[in-house]
Amino acid sequence: MRFLVCVKQVVDTSKMEVDPNTGRLNRNNANSIINPLDLHALEAALALRDQVGGTVTVLTMGPPQAEHVLQYAVSMGADDVYLATDRAFGGADTLATSYTLAAAIRKLGSFDLIFCGQESLDSNTAQIGPEVAAMLSMPDVSGAVDISYEREGYITVRRQLSDEDEVLEMKLPALITTAESLNRPRYPSVLGIMKKDHVEIHKLTSADLDVDPSRIGLTGSPTRVKQVRPVVPPKKENLRIEGKTTDEAVDLLCTAMQKIHVI
Ligand SMILES: Cc1cc2nc3c(=O)[nH]c(=O)nc-3n(C[C@H](O)[C@H](O)[C@H](O)COP(=O)(O)OP(=O)(O)OC[C@H]3O[C@@H](n4cnc5c(N)ncnc54)[C@H](O)[C@@H]3O)c2cc1C
After folding, report:
1. Most informative mutation of 5, 6, 8 for ligand 1 (most atoms within 8 A of CB)
2. Is the minimum distance from the CB of 63 to ligand 1 under 6 angstroms?
3. Where does the record place the Electron transfer flavoprotein alpha/beta-subunit N-terminal domain (predicted)?
4. Mutate which of 60, 67, 123, 224 for ligand 1 pocket (most atoms within 8 A of beta carbon)
5. Which of 96, 132, 123 has the alpha carbon at shortest distance from 6?
6. Where along the chain do its domains lie?
7. CATH class of 2-215
8. C-alpha angle 177-182-184 in degrees, rounded to nearest 5
9. Which band of pLDDT confidence, cut at 50, 70 and 90, is reported for residue 30?
10. What pLDDT digit, counting tens, does each position of 204-236 carry?
């Protein structure tokens, strides 16, 4: 079977910086990592490949530095890796990102199963997976907590809803976004670590893809970040309530709470 995994290079949130003038994330190699939730998507694909045979292709759209997340995927066991990179892809919102990823996937041929992480660490809209599936006209299930391949041409997926589990069977080809509890991502192997420095990272530019230039990058993005503001932590104040009796203390407490609109 042919598996494809979409992974995103994200800013390590412990070192995240936002350009106050443009509202954009300051992405540079030093503070970028593979989106942690995408490791679960990659593990799911690798485990299925180990079970039924086939290949795992990994795709990312990002700047040239995103190469190192693909190398990490190779060290975990990915067979081949693709980087969709072009200035024209820059500034994409979720719609333009999904459009570009879907075009890249079409270019790479047909896949039986496509995996995405549940959401990214830095924009976390969780929109990309379902949007890519819609653009490729395939079914999708989000937040898989269990995946099994029991019947040829179909995949069984369990997902957790707020108060119940749902088990769905999807006809392949299909897309799955994976929950964190699905599996424990494997560590890179020694062989994988040796392979990652020599692997060929295939680049895809807008010229390689059959894309409408008005639907990619900033031009193709109907949404804009107008402003980014740091969250101001609520001001803390200590209030000491003293009363001669318990009833008096309770009255004083209630009055104080009414003043600060707690009750
Ligand atoms: C209004 C708006 C404006 C934006 N403007 C900009 C901007 O100007 N510049 C900018 O750099 N970013 C911008 N972004 C962020 C950019 O849109 C997102 O990084 C991108 O669309 C992915 O969305 P997400 O991070 O929410 O992914 P999610 O939907 O949360 O990710 C789910 C999964 O999709 C896959 N995935 C997501 N992104 C990629 C990718 N690039 N390659 C491969 N797989 C992927 C991964 O498997 C991931 O786990 C903007 C976002 C919004 C909402």
Report:
1. 8
2. no
3. 22-213
4. 123
5. 132
6. 2-215, 234-263
7. alpha beta
8. 120
9. low
10. 999 999 999 999 999 999 998 888 777 777 777
Q: Whose CA is nearest to atom 48 of ligand 1?
A: 117
The CB of 123 under 6 Å from ligand 1? The reply is yes
CB neighbours of residue 21 within 10 Å: 6
Give the position, in ligand 1's atom list, of the atom nearest the Cα of 128: 29
60 lines ligand 1 (CB under 6 A): yes
Q: Which two tokens stand for residue 182?
A: 């699905």
Decide whether any atom of ligand 1 lies within 6 Å of the 100 Cβ: no
Q: Is 160 in the pocket of ligand 1 (CB under 6 A)?
A: no
Token digits for 95? 């719609």
Q: Average pLDDT in the 142-159 region?
A: 97
Q: Point out the ligand 1 atom lying closest to the alpha carbon of residue 37.
A: 49
